[in-house]
Design brief:
Blueprint lengths: L1 H31 L3 H27 L7 H9 L2 H21 L5 H22 L6 H20 L3 H5 L4 H40 L7 E2 H9 L9 E8 L2 H8 L1 H22 L4 E7 L2 E7 L3 H16 L3 E2 L5 E2 L3 E8 L5 H17 L5 E2 L6
Parallel strand pairs: 1-3, 7-8
Antiparallel strand pairs: 2-4, 2-7, 3-4, 5-6
Helix pairs in contact: 1-2, 1-8, 2-4, 3-4, 3-6, 4-5, 5-6, 6-8, 10-11
């Protein structure tokens, strides 16, 4: 019963505790460190301590070494092969220390363990090439095989050492491997759910729910961001759907929302086809939109908006009752450069938009353009 208790529960629980520290506390702690080097030193110090405890425990009771590849395999598949290599490479020196402490140091044993370590890495690399198997299945297969095969090759003297059948040792190791896998699977699933929730919240904070365009908060974040991370030259275009209140009053707010979606979809299709790079479209709220061009000539941007105006006027929006509605917009164009901030350009584009509406709507005005 001793081997079942230690190999099936105690050693796996120690391993789980270390993995939990690695993937939870260390992630939190590493963020507070200014230098990654210190984080790596602390991590590998605790990894070496973990190796020493588990290897000493299993060797003291059974004269075998178990679960020594769990962290290396976990790091290989979940953190990347480089971290996995480093976790693997730390194991032989710690095993040598365990043997020295127990007075049974053998260079041949260390060399044999090193060969097994290299074989485990090669096995992980080979199974990682299988494209038809999901990542966790690759991880689970590598972990179980390494946990079972390694003690067999290293501890062929089990029968004489513990005086019991080989299956009495295999079963606890298999149980321990299943316990470790269950923890890793549960934690990974919970972590993925949390990351999905974070991405969803980030998306909701960044994009407009109705149009899937970037929202005003995204625009404000960009404007207030570091100047050295942005181009110096921008062109700002402010747009407003004409007679939107009349559309709402005539067809209802649901159709009004559909008009907004129709207009935003038309914008996205037009820019994906004609100007896919260095341009962002924002919904400021209601029927008002903003287009921000990076490093483009203001006349070119003005010409693009005139082309979009022509394309939009060539098609009508159809209500649920199949009534055709002409959707037009008014726009203003202004320039932001090293002499003119983006927020000031927004005000100038807004003034041009107001002039376009006063002049009869369905037009784009660019006071600084020569065309």
């Amino acid at each position: 019963m001793l081997e079942i208790f230690i190999l099936g529960f105690i050693a796996p629980l120690i391993t789980i505790c270390f993995l939990f520290c690695k993937y939870y506390f260390f992630r939190i702690y590493v963020v507070s460190l200014e230098h990654q080097l210190w984080a790596d030193i602390i991590f590998y110090f605790f990894l070496g301590t973990f190796y020493f405890v588990v290897e000493s425990l299993t060797f003291f009771y059974f004269e075998i070494i178990c679960f020594q590849y769990v962290v290396g395999i976990t790091a290989f598949f979940l953190d990347g092969r480089i971290r996995g290599y480093l976790a693997f490479a730390l194991m032989p020196p710690v095993l040598m220390l365990v043997e020295l402490v127990n007075g049974i140091y053998s260079p041949a044993t260390i060399q044999y363990v090193f060969v097994l370590m290299v074989a485990s890495i090669i096995f992980c690399e080979l199974i990682n090439f299988l494209v038809d198997i999901d990542l966790f299945s690759k991880y689970a297969t590598s972990l179980v095989i390494a946990n079972i095969v390694s003690p067999v090759l290293i501890g062929a003297q089990w029968r004489s050492t513990i005086g019991t059948s080989t299956s009495d040792v295999y079963v606890p190791i298999l149980i321990g491997s299943v316990i470790i896998l269950s923890f890793v699977y549960g934690y990974s699933a919970a972590l993925q759910r949390k990351e999905v929730q974070i991405l969803e919240l980030r998306y909701e904070a960044t994009y407009d729910g109705l149009t899937n365009l970037l929202n005003y908060n995204s625009f404000a974040d960009y404007v207030t961001g570091k100047k050295e991370e942005k181009p110096q030259h921008h062109v700002v275009v402010m747009l407003d759907i004409d007679n939107f209140k009349q559309i709402n009053d005539t067809f209802g707010h649901l159709e009004g929302n559909n008009v907004i979606k129709f207009f935003s979809t038309s914008l996205k299709i037009f820019f994906n086809r004609n100007c896919p790079k260095n341009v962002e479209v924002y919904r400021f709220g209601g029927e008002e939109f903003c287009i921000l061009f990076q490093d483009r000539n203001i006349e070119d941007c003005f010409s693009l908006m005139l082309r979009f105006q022509e394309e939009l006027s060539a098609k009508n929006f159809l209500t649920d009752d199949k009534q055709a509605v002409a959707v037009t917009f008014s726009g203003g164009v202004a320039e932001a450069n090293e002499f003119n901030e983006i927020d000031q350009a927004v005000k100038e584009a807004d003034m041009a938009l107001y002039l376009a509406k006063r002049a009869g709507r369905a037009q784009v005005i660019c006071p600084a353009c020569q065309i």
